[in-house]
Request: fold
Amino acid sequence: MRNAAVLGVETSCDETAVAIYDGARGLLAHVLHSQAALHARYGGVVPELAARDHVGRIYALAQEALRRAALEPHQLAGVAYTAGPGLAGALLVGGAFAAGYAAALDRPLVAVHHMEGHLLAPMLEEHRPEFPFVALLVSGGHTLLVEVAGLGHYRILGETLDDAVGEAFDKVAKALGLPYPGGPHLARLAESGRVGPFRFARPMTDRPGLDFSFSGLKTAVLTALPRVKSEQDRADLARAFEEAAVETLAIKCERALDETGLNRLVVAGGVGANRRLRAELDRRVRARNGALYFPRAEFCTDNAAMIACAGWARLAEARPPTSAIEVRARWPLDDLRPPAT
Ligand code: KG4
Ligand code: ZN
Reply:
């Protein structure tokens, strides 16, 4: 089973992606089309447009992934797809494609949890973590601290009570007039910001517990907006927001390491691409002689490499494809169990 190539499909939001992962040879190919330009004029993802665009691109991307991996379809051992959480219509496109492809090839089908994909993305790198570890999963839809004892052994330590941190980045960016998706644009603007002119509280760090709340921080930033009179003010505000968000995440990560007694920290999900977050976590984890792991930036944001990898890890529980396509727009991570062997 180890040297089995799995084709992974990701269509949970606005990226159409296909990758091929082989247990023995690693990642053989990954291709991705971002719909960012399609949704930019609406300032956010339009679910119906996302689903339609996935339909038009998925087959050609799969062909391209096979070409780059120098594989024939019959050499695949299985097909994996993101079954949730995500936009229902978008998920159905990837699910229908994967099920049809698996049926045509007479190969088993694996339904992958998108956040388990993010969680396993550091396994695609040379510097990869051993179990157990604490994971910080930070994306547009999730802010989770998870104790990971092994594949499928997940204990949620903390989560956001309102906005996800990526959502807060995107909303603040939009208010500052930055293009969609705002997170990376805000981070770039913050680079020229100064420390001092604005300062925001680090939400929920002054009381015990590992939950997060970012909607108050977002509101505090929006309330300060009228004080922005120049380009420099904009950058200063972006910097103050980013620092508050990053420090809040970092404080909770350290607390999670303290509470679990673990010293390995994994950070993944779109916001994991944020440089200030990486540097801050690196500094804190180093100071306590721990180890920090994160995927390269392109595997922090949505991609199919992580889905192919998670699909390969769960190949033992793959099932023959059926015409009933299984997707779950909402799907708690701790519903998952270790793979059946
Ligand atoms: O994991 P992801 O690609 O999609 C979801 O599953 O949500 O995460 C997307 C989120 C968006 O909110 C985006 O603005 C944010 O990740 N993001 C960033 C950066 N790159 C992406 N946020 C802050 N700094 C970045 N460099
Ligand atoms: Zn994601």
Q: What stands out?
A: Strands lie at 5-10, 15-22, 26-34, 76-84, 109-113, 133-138, 143-150, 153-159, 264-268, 291-293. The pocket of KG4 (ligand 1) is lined by residues 13, 139-141, 166, 169-170, 181-184, 187, 269-271, 273-274, 301-302 (CB under 6 Å). The radius of gyration is 20 Å.
